[in-house]
Design goal:
The complex is a heterodimer of chains A (263) and B (348).
Chain A (H helix, E strand, L loop, with lengths): L1 H27 L16 H6 L3 H34 L2 H16 L2 H15 L5 H26 L3 H8 L4 H30 L2 H6 L7 H6 L9 H30 L5
Helix pairs in contact in A: 1-11, 3-6, 3-8, 4-6, 6-8, 7-8
Chain B lengths: L1 H23 L5 E7 L5 H11 L2 E7 L2 H9 L7 E2 L3 H9 L33 E14 L22 E4 L2 H11 L9 H14 L3 E5 L3 H6 L5 E5 H10 L3 E4 L7 E7 L7 H11 L2 H11 L6 H5 L3 H4 L24 H13 L2
Parallel strand pairs in B: 1-2, 1-3, 5-6, 5-7
Antiparallel strand pairs in B: 4-7, 4-8, 4-9
Classes of the chains: A mainly alpha (263), B alpha/beta (348).
């Protein structure tokens, strides 16, 4: 009995530890003062100001835009690269796999500075394009890594069988291989999307005039103190995420029921 | 399920493509502004865009050094930037700034004489003042019963664990130098060593080395004394009436954030137009009210609410400013500052 209570407590304590900072942040998005130390009464002022603050909105727009684009592009590149790597044999495969691990293990700052030097050397103007290219660059290895296991699980003879039955290689790829590894592609795209939204260091070195993302925008408020508008924005993003998660879970439950409880 | 996936993918692609399209079809002239985060009234930018029918790309940075890296690395161009005094000196020396054509900035006449022709930019060839402020001590009247008029109070054993220092090497070492009667810009190793030893001696008394969180800590009365900038002090006193700000008698640091035009600016005339616009008294006053720092624009100062206009914190009398010093670019001494600061921070 006691051990059960402790078990339950433990779970709640852990959740509290994880969510306490977010709860504080949400509460202070309704605080009627710029101060983060003192409660001055309830207000919706920061939410109103958020939708008037063109800088924060622009940063949000670029953050999401770049995350979407880089997720799509790096997923396409990563999928074909993974299929290619899977088809390799022997030492060549090992070398390429390790080359693929390298950017993952590399500290972000090294990637950031080397990309910056590269763009300068080639002479591209810093801005949207450089930021997007950088994000694609650091996302691709993660996409490859999330697709490779799915390829390994797949029966290699499936594609061969399809081609034996008259499918062209392209048709076999589209109708057999890709559907088989779809869950891997989907996780890869999600990882790329979250990594891109999270990134600060690489974006910081490769941004240009007029293009910025949320993490840079928030960091640059350090001298004057974080504007509570950011609290309001984070609250909204958190709520959107929760609603999305609930919706997806509901849908999954329904589709499982439809299939008669078999997963 | 497959169908749903296809449709979502299609929507994603379309939104992504339309996104890139929106991003770049604008043929209005654009002005790239590079400023500290949250350091302008956003409505002022909108007004400028409407009045001159242009688009303003507003970019932000957190420290002078961040801004320096972005401008010095090249590959992108900003038309107006807002560095501080010592950084302006460094950028002039490195040839990163363009000379400003003052014929295009008639509103410069609104700026007080004492804010012009300073050492970091003689004759204001390259920069126009935007904001200024000083460093001083803020203290809680209910927690401190000595007279606070000197940096010495920060070394008083009585306030052990209740003192907040700035987590900034130039400022903290500068405070220690000033207290000993030396210049904040000294290049004398013995004086610097002495200042360092004093800071190490003071360390057991210090509650924390802080950045922006100093505001919360002081307003919440978690510390009795802190080194702060005057602009922040005004905001803190508004939140907690027990706080009071003083200029130490040994003198202190005075800083300036000026507007400059980088050499590779694409739209220099428009940049000058923007600088001129920010110096219009009504516009400058709006920015001061939003930011809370002190303005060098004398005409704008007259438009401020009385309590701010006459505040001794924001606009001290000339005598109080007599012993103030502006930071000078330390050039080769920077690495020595780094080392001293490391030693102070590493001390337990």
């Amino acid at each position: 009995m006691v051990s059960r209570i402790i078990k339950k407590m433990y779970l709640w304590l852990m959740l509290l530890f994880l969510y306490a900072p977010i709860i504080v942040l949400i509460v202070f998005s309704f605080n009627d003062s710029r101060s983060r130390g003192k409660w001055n009464g309830f207000t919706l002022r920061w939410y109103a100001e958020l939708f008037k603050d063109s800088n924060v909105l622009k940063a949000l727009y670029y953050t999401i835009g770049i995350a979407l684009l880089s997720a799509i592009i790096s997923t396409i590149i990563g999928t074909f690269a993974a299929i290619g790597i899977h088809g390799l044999n022997g030492i060549g495969k090992k070398v390429i796999l390790n080359l693929n691990y390298l950017p993952v293990l590399n500290p972000d700052i090294v990637t950031a500075v080397s990309l910056m030097t590269l763009y300068k050397f080639v002479g591209i103007e810093f801005g949207f394009i450089t930021m997007l290219l950088s994000h694609v660059t650091f996302c691709v290895p993660y996409v490859i890594l999330s697709i490779l296991p799915k390829l390994k699980q797949m029966n290699n003879h499936l594609a061969e069988a399809a081609m034996d039955l008259g499918a062209t290689p392209m048709y076999a790829l589209r109708k057999v291989v890709i559907p088989e590894i779809m869950p891997g592609i989907f996780t890869g795209a999600l990882i790329a999307f979250t990594l891109s939204i999270d990134d600060f260091v690489i974006s910081f070195f490769n941004k240009g005039a007029g293009v910025t993302n949320l993490s840079i925008e928030i960091y640059s408020m350090a001298r004057r103190g974080i504007n509570p508008v950011i609290n309001a924005l984070t609250t909204l993003m958190f709520v959107v995420l929760i609603v999305m998660l609930i919706y997806i879970n509901r849908k999954q439950e329904k589709s499982i029921k439809k299939k008669g409880g078999v997963i | 399920m497959r169908r749903g996936l296809k449709i979502t993918l299609l929507i994603l692609l379309i939104s992504a493509i339309s996104f890139t399209a929106i991003g770049c079809n604008d043929d209005k002239p654009t002005l790239n502004v590079y400023n500290w985060g949250d350091y302008i009234d956003p409505d002022v930018i909108k007004d400028f865009e409407e009045e001159f029918n242009v688009k303003v790309n507003y970019n932000t940075f957190a420290t002078n050094e961040d801004m320096y890296v972005s401008i010095a690395k090249g590959g992108t161009s900003y038309d107006v930037a807002f560095p501080s005094d010592y950084m302006i000196e460094r950028m002039i020396n490195e040839g990163l700034l363009a000379e400003i054509n003052k014929d295009n900035i008639p509103n410069m006449k609104n700026i007080g004489e004492e804010y012009l022709d300073l050492d970091f930019d003689p004759g204001n060839k390259y920069s126009v003042p935007y904001m200024w402020g000083t460093l001083g001590i803020i203290y809680n009247k209910t927690m401190v019963d000595d007279v606070v008029d000197s940096w010495d109070i920060l070394w008083n054993e009585k306030y052990k664990g209740q003192i907040l220092m700035l987590d900034s090497q130039r400022d903290s070492i500068g405070v220690s130098l000033k207290r000993l009667g030396y210049s904040m810009n000294t290049r004398d190793m013995n004086e610097l060593e002495e200042a360092k030893n004093e800071l190490i001696k003071q360390k057991p008394l210090v509650y924390a080395y802080v950045g922006d969180d100093v505001k919360q800590l002081m307003v919440a009365e978690e510390a009795a004394l802190a080194v702060v900038w005057a602009g922040d002090a005004v905001a803190m006193i508004r939140e907690n009436e027990n706080l009071e700000y003083v200029y130490p008698k040994e003198g202190t640091n005075i800083w300036f954030d000026n507007m400059v035009i980088p050499k590779n600016a694409k739209n220099k005339e428009l940049a000058e137009e923007f600088i001129n616009f920010l110096n219009r008294p009504d516009i400058a006053a709006r920015n001061v009210e939003y930011i809370g720092y002190s303005t060098p624009n004398v005409e704008a100062q007259k438009l401020l609410p009385e309590e701010i206009r006459n505040s001794q914190v924001a606009y001290p009398s000339k005598e109080k400013l007599e012993d103030t010093e502006i930071f000078v670019d330390m050039k080769d001494m920077l690495s020595i500052y780094d080392e001293l600061w490391m030693e102070i921070k590493a001390e337990r």
